[in-house]
Amino acid sequence: MTNVIDGNAVADGIRADLEDCVDTLDNAGVTPGLATVLVGDDPASETYVSMKQRDCEEVGMNGIHVELDGDAAPDELYDTIDDLNDDSSVHGYLVQDPVPDQIDYREVIRRIDPAKDVDGFHPENVGRLVAGDARFKPCTPHGVQKLLDAADVDPEGKDVTIVGRSRIVGKPLANLLMQKTDGGNATVTVCHSRTQDLAEKTRRADIVVAAVGAPELVDGSMLSEGTTVIDVGVNRVDADTDEQRSSSSQNSSSSDDTEKGYELVGDVEFDSAKEKASAITPVPGGVGPMTRAMLLYNTVKAASQQEDVDVSL
Ligand code: NDP
């Protein structure tokens, strides 16, 4: 029987633990503060930041939201960043990507105080991660590690194939999984758009992580029996009105999404992959909730470090 890993349940458990940490901080007179900065009015970004703010409230953290117009000059954003760096009630913050064209996101990242960089994207934090001394593990890769742990899949000694080499998912995940620490010690292959014979790389893996942004790129024919499959991808595709698909698919989006004219699918073709996998994450309800939970985790960690209060993370 394939284990369909319930990311919502794992994330709930992490949030419950974080609530205890927030209580400990509260007893020391500290409320962890997370700020989100949104430049412009990209609808998907608006949804993401409002979910992050709601998450803060739910665990008793202080959520601060800053919005700038889509035509804001880079200096306006840099002033906001300087203010957040100086604000001791803000322990962590992020600038939601993508930013409008007039703003250089790399420059934005460089200006964030690394101690408050709860996304883990600042060059100093990237360097520390690679050196095996992570201050903040980036949220999605850390969430993937937690999902593997929750599914009792230890990467040690396993062959892992990661499809995708992005700055935010593929590269940091490869680093985490190859490290000589618990949750690591895997032999990692990283694939990308120039990789030859992708299916050969996925078939030889014990664990496949798909982080591409290509709907249902990885299907069951590309997997060996017993593989663990983690699907990071979130792709909006036109709602499928085909009755056969809606009656056969075990992992389609909610009827709400279908009514909006789209549905969410991952980078893995769930039904055929599930036939081969020993464990698999669904989309939605797999990696997504974990990314949000690990952002809260990093914010609690940042507050604990900045305020010198021990919490058991
Ligand atoms: P990027 O676009 O930054 O990177 C995609 C990677 O996939 C690149 O390395 C690219 O190769 C590679 N790639 C593209 N096409 C192929 C192909 N045909 N075969 C093999 N590799 C290919 O994406 P992200 O990492 O930011 O995101 C990936 C997916 O994960 C998206 O669907 C995104 O929405 C989702 N996501 C989900 C999160 C969550 O919380 N669930 C969080 C973050 C992302 P190359 O480098 O050569 O261009």
Word description of this protein:
This protein is of the alpha/beta class. The protein has two domains: 28-113, Rossmann fold, CATH 3.40.50.10860; 139-288, Rossmann fold. It is built from twelve helices and eleven strands. It has helices at residues 7-27, 43-58, 74-86, 105-111, 123-130, 139-150, 170-178, 198-203, 243-248, 255-259, 270-276, 287-307, and strands at 3-4, 33-39, 62-68, 92-95, 159-163, 187-191, 207-210, 228-231, 235-238, 262-265, 279-280. It has a six-stranded parallel sheet, with helices on both faces. Strands 3-2-4 form a three-stranded parallel sheet, sandwiched between helices. Strand 2, helix 2 (43-58) and strand 3 (62-68) form a beta-alpha-beta unit. The protein is globular. It starts with a strand and ends in a 6-residue tail after the last helix. Bound molecules: NADPH dihydro-nicotinamide-adenine-dinucleotide phosphate (NDP). Residues 140, 163-166, 168-170, 191-195, 198, 211-214, 217, 232-235, 287-288, 291 line the site of NADPH dihydro-nicotinamide-adenine-dinucleotide phosphate (NDP).
SSE diagram, text form:
Layout: E1 3-4, H1 7-27, E2 33-39, H2 43-58, E3 62-68, H3 74-86, E4 92-95, H4 105-111, H5 123-130, H6 139-150, E5 159-163, H7 170-178, E6 187-191, H8 198-203, E7 207-210, E8 228-231, E9 235-238, H9 243-248, H10 255-259, E10 262-265, H11 270-276, E11 279-280, H12 287-307
Parallel strand pairs: 1-11, 2-3, 2-4, 5-6, 5-7, 7-8, 8-11
Antiparallel strand pairs: 9-10
Helix pairs in contact: 1-12, 2-12, 6-7, 6-12
The structure holds NADPH dihydro-nicotinamide-adenine-dinucleotide phosphate.
